[in-house]
């Protein structure tokens, strides 16, 4: 009997190698979803860098320099909003489409996106993937301790959370576009152009990115309070986080049934929004370059708008470079905090700040445990909150020193743009557009670490969690 032809064996060999490779990817999604999430974001950044490098993506038909293409890809996927090129004039219509698609993909979030892809690959979410996905929906995030029964989203609700993410993104952006479309037409925008600008603005507001589809940005709409209010509403909905949207959708206005995470997010967000606006108003009301020429109502509204945008929105009516130095410091503080966990906003998250504030208050009152709204916050959550702040501050400090040394620019401007990148805000004093390539790469890495999340990044590089079956003797060092 004649032997079988060689090509089927070769094909079977390639098939076996493909199956083994697919099995490795499938095992990665269930064994280390945090590491898989980082790889997913890196792959997306490389893909969009290649897309932005296409001559067809630029308005003049030439290839965009690698540093600019990479930075734009990172800023888009990480929904930051910073840019080293003029986003309106540099890119062609195809390039703007890449940006629109990229921010919506990035808005899904690191672990949510990884969970969705893992579900597609493995046809199911493994237990560890469910734990990680659930962890991204509450202040526990990724940690080595147990997942509490009272977490925001339980394991059986992970699928509902993923569905809520997709549906809420589509529904909210569509609703914002419907509201923005007549406002753009009334502002003198051509109806056909407004068909593109309305969904573009809606996506940039909800994803907290802040890119604009026109040459002058929001300057032509400085007096259009309806349009600016819709943008603020979109930024707010994007910054509170998908778990909060999930909780509000599930329980409507039954406040008592809201999770502790939902309550802390909404209360802290509101306090920072109001207090931030008040401080900005006091610091800028007599600045002739910003609010000095406005009346009381305009000044108050613009102060609230700046406060909302420093939380991660990225839109700007006034020139950020014209703000007083003290206002830049306040804006840096607001940006560093950012928005809610598992949201399109960046920063250390408002729940992190709330947990640390409650811990300090409990220590001042001499209480042995940290409590809020009839619930006790376990010590592992407090340790994670402290770790997030420490790692975030370290990343910002290293990036600020490095870029400051490279550019020799005023340190308050460097700090503002670095925190804007880390917290994925997108506001700039004008420094980012003039950065040399080495500083561009440093700021791009800062944006990536800020979006992926310090805890997620730590979990991704950690080899394995170890269980210690013994306890060392206690000794108390002097603190403070």
Automatic annotation (TrEMBL):
Keywords: Cell membrane, Ion transport, Membrane, Transmembrane, Transmembrane helix, Transport. It comes from the Bacteria. It is found in: Cell membrane. Signal peptide: none annotated. GO terms for biological process: metal ion transport. Its main location: membrane. This is TrkH family potassium uptake protein. It comes from Microbacterium lushaniae.
